[in-house]
Structures are given as C-alpha cells and as structure tokens.
Amino acid sequence: MVVDKMVTPGIKQVQETKLEAGVSQDAVRIANMPASNAVGGGRRFREGFTLIELMIVVVIIAILATLAVPSYQSYVKRSRFVEVMHQGESRKALVSACITVNLGNMTTCDNNSASIGPAITNASTYHASTTVNDATITSSATTKGGLEGGVFVLTPSYGSGKGISWTISGNCTDLQLC
After folding, report:
1. What residues form DSSP beta bridges with 17?
2. Enclosing domain of residue 98
C-alpha cells in the first residue's frame, strides 16, 4: 500500500489517499472529493432542458392551440360570409332610391325593375345569389367553406319624414355569421 499526499483544488487542504494496486489515482481523487464537487452532486452547470421543462412547454402549447383553433375557424367562416353580406349591401342603395322615388311604395322594388336590375348569382366563391322582392334583399351563401347555405336578409321600413331603416335577419344570425 502506497500513501500519496495530494491537494484538492479549491479546498487547499492536504489529504492522504491510499493507492492500491489496479486503482488509478484519478479514481481515488474522485472518491475522496467532497459531494459538492463530485459528478452529479451539488451545484454544476447544466446545458439544455430537462424532460419536465419540455413537457410543461408542450402542455402550454396544447392548451393555447385548443383555445385558438375554434376561434380561428369561426373567424374564417365569418370572413367568408362577408362576401355574401357585401352583395346584399350593394343592392341597398338601389332599393333605397326605388323606395324614395315611389314615395314609400315597396311593391314595385323588385329584381328586373328599371332601378334595381337583375338578380346576382355566383358573384364569388361563397356567394350563391342575391335577390330583391318587394324591397326585401335576400343574399344566400353556398355550402362551401362551412357556410352551410347561410341567408342574409335586409328588410327596409319606410316612415314619412324618418327615412328608411333596415333590419337584418335570416339564418346567418343563428349560424353566427352576421
């Protein structure tokens, strides 16, 4: 048995170590190190992330995706239905002029009348048709893009001295598209 004196860096203290045959001097040094300096113990600099940290990030992303995806899909449907609403709104000025010229008589304000023109069909990807009947504007969607054939209806009411006011109806309110 050989006795070796060595100084452990940072502690500045002389330690006696026993070296036996077949055991390296490095193995003995590691065995005699304080727990704070040994591999796996105490403070040491770690690189990367632990598994639990990665799992927490994945859970947070999953929760955000669960909340965001339905909202996004609803937003996309409403934005597609805007094309249908735009076609109905485009007829609003023509119908208002027709009602004003006819002094509130709405029965003459139909498609193919001189002031309104023919019905609009398939004006865009999601628009099926827009018609005017007795001054009521009905604009329909296709079933593409999740619009489920939504219908947007503008109904005018004329009051002498009050002008024309419009009421929105149709199944687009039930489908939460308008």
Report:
1. 4
2. 80-169
